[in-house]
Design a protein that fits this description.
heterodimer, A: two-stranded antiparallel ribbon, 1% strand, B: alpha/beta, 4-stranded antiparallel beta sheet, 39% helix, globular
């Protein structure tokens, strides 16, 4: 049986994702572990936001709310009920999905600008809930500390930072494969269609509401997954995770990386975390650099770093490939 | 006698004090190709929007094959087989031509649940026979993989009609299908419409009457939200109310001039 074409197809589908994650694995060899772990978690955090903005046309300043839902659901389980971090992560995923299903039917009916504002309001509500209203169980500003509550897990012990990196790496790989698959599906095409022409989509017989709700739930469940990973990685959660000053973080990351592109969130996370780390050591106020940089990126065509690099890389790679093929043909 | 497919009874739609459509009753029969004309603001597009579910009438009812669809959403009407095109060409400009067609095909032929949208990729359907046939018929084969934002207006219009045809609607409502097209593009669209005569129920709103009169079996003239004339092309064109309101001919002065020795 000739498996050549099947393998070639599989490789063509995976190669971008594998290359991206090989670069992340390569970064692990030269950069400190906390830095690479933060990049991985931040990328997963940002991809939901990137999907909503790039594919569905919804800008959300409320992603920290869903991040906090995932993180606190995991934290509650590990602080009050159990010790297995994997089960804690599953709780975080379930809570994120439930929260998105609860508010989604109301939010996705709104125009993009109002959608941004209600999500921002939700982030503020969640912040005050965790900081003040639910303080008896969330321990207010002190947060929940459960690092020592977690028990070691067999096969991959994610209570150890080194093994947590492998786990986050594998989770990231699965998340990216999932979003790449979504891009290829009829659902992915419907998301792009509802972004640009909801009337037409409606008159083809599709439900804009159901498509947007599904996209909203998928994006925010991914964000909650990032929250759960944060919780397990840090072994603690505080209201700081959803502080009003942090609401723009994922939006900044995807603007830096490139809105709606598959690899924009990874590139943006590397750039954002890197700048924060390096510039804050050099001049302290790193926001003074990232602010003007964002203005420049927006003025330069809103494509972000990956959005600008991608066509150039494709041009170089595919032109080379085509040239090689032409040479082969000529040789024949 | 052919079947009454779409029937509007005493339909009224108001925007504030203005009655955009005022007590209009209209019947479209199976396999009929009918047209609606009227000056700007006559209520043609509002009436179209009422038939297709974009607006709900303030009073009156709309039936499809005897079933009341007055309160049905556009999606429910599409499920019945009532489809439309728009006055301003309406496609998905951020997708390729082929993916626009895949979306139209998939919903119409797969009765897609949300789960099906996740389980099917666009690639699986791009080489579908029906889509290939439509690409050929509408002369879109060479544009197959081009993003729609890069097409000309005429090419977009052909694509829009192709998308609607692909869904095999029972009733096709075309809102000014020739608007903004060059003469060669008009002929291309007309050739497509000509092929549908006798096979498809079509209602056309169009200003370019000279182009569509050859295959219109019935014409309706609207003015200020009301139907003022209905019948054959010549019959409508000679109707005094149409001459006065649509062509703005001073009918009384004309009659007086003819009566004078």
């Amino acid at each position: 049986m000739n498996r050549g074409p099947t393998l070639r197809k599989a490789w063509a589908w995976w190669w971008g994702i594998l290359l991206a994650f090989m670069l992340i694995a390569g970064m692990r060899l030269v950069l400190p572990l906390p830095f690479v772990n933060e990049i991985l978690i931040f990328s997963i955090y940002a991809i939901g936001c990137s999907f909503l903005l790039g594919k569905v046309g919804f800008i959300s300043f409320g992603q920290p709310a869903y991040l906090a839902v995932g993180a606190y659901a995991t934290a509650f389980y590990l602080f009050y009920f159990g010790t297995n971090p994997y089960i804690g992560i599953l709780w975080g995923l379930a809570a994120g999905c439930a929260a998105a299903l609860l508010v989604g039917p109301l939010f996705v009916r709104l125009r993009s600008d109002y959608f941004a504002l209600v999500n921002l309001a939700l982030a503020v509500i969640v912040f005050y809930l965790m900081q003040k209203v639910l303080a008896p169980i969330t321990k207010g500003d002190n947060g929940l500390w459960f690092l020592t509550n977690m028990t070691s897990t067999p096969v991959l012990d994610i209570t150890q930072p080194q093994q947590f990196f492998i786990f986050a790496f594998l989770v990231g790989l699965v998340v990216w494969a999932f979003y790449k698959y979504l891009d290829d599906t009829i659902f992915g095409a419907c998301c792009l269609a509802t972004k640009i022409n909801e009337d037409k989509l409606q008159f083809l017989g599709y439900s804009n509401f159901r498509i947007r709700l599904a996209a909203f739930v998928i994006a925010n469940t991914t964000t909650a997954l990032a929250g759960s990973l944060y919780a397990v990685y840090l072994g603690a959660v505080s209201p700081e995770i959803t502080a009003p000053s942090r609401t723009a973080d994922p939006v900044i990351v995807i603007l830096l990386g490139g809105v709606g592109t598959l690899y924009g969130p990874i590139v943006g996370s590397v750039a954002y975390t890197g700048m924060k780390d390096v510039i804050s050591k050099l001049i302290g106020n790193w926001e003074m650099v990232i602010g003007p940089l964002l203005v420049i990126i927006m003025l330069a065509g809103e494509k972000g770093i990956w959005g600008t690099l991608e066509p150039w890389l494709k041009n170089v790679l595919f032109r080379r490939r085509n040239t090689a093929a032409d040479d082969r043909d000529e040789a024949r | 006698m052919s079947i009454e497919l779409l029937k509007a009874s005493h339909v009224t739609k108001r925007f504030g004090a203005l009655a955009a459509v005022n007590d209009v009753s209209y019947t479209l029969r199976e396999h009929e190709v009918a047209g609606i004309i009227g000056s700007n603001g006559a209520g043609k597009t509002t009436f179209f929007n009422l038939l297709t579910g974009l607006y709900t009438p303030d009073s009156g009812s709309i039936h499809y094959r005897g079933t009341d669809i007055t309160r049905d959403t556009p999606q429910q009407r599409v499920a019945h087989g009532v489809m439309r095109t728009f006055q301003l060409t309406s496609t998905f400009d951020n997708l390729t031509v082929i993916d626009n067609l895949v979306l139209a095909f998939f919903r119409a032929h797969r009765k897609s649940s949300l789960l099906q949208l996740f389980l099917n990729t666009c690639k699986q359907h791009r080489n579908n026979d029906k889509i290939a046939e439509v690409l050929e018929t509408f002369d879109l084969r060479d544009l197959r993989d081009r993003e729609v934002r890069n097409l000309s207006l005429g090419e977009k219009r052909r694509l829009e009609i192709a998308m609607t045809m692909l869904a095999e609607p029972k009733v096709l409502l075309l809102d000014e299908p020739l608007a903004g097209l060059a003469e060669s593009e008009i002929q291309a669209v007309l050739a497509i419409l000509r092929r549908q005569v006798g096979q498809q129920t079509i209602l056309i709103v169009e200003h370019k009457l000279s182009h569509v009169k050859e295959f219109l079996q019935r014409l309706t003239v609207m003015h200020e939200g009301r139907i003022i004339a209905e019948g054959g092309y010549e019959e409508c064109m000679n109707h005094p109310e149409v001459r006065r309101s649509y062509w703005q001919i001073d009918v009384d002065a004309e009659a007086a001039a003819q009566a004078a020795p």
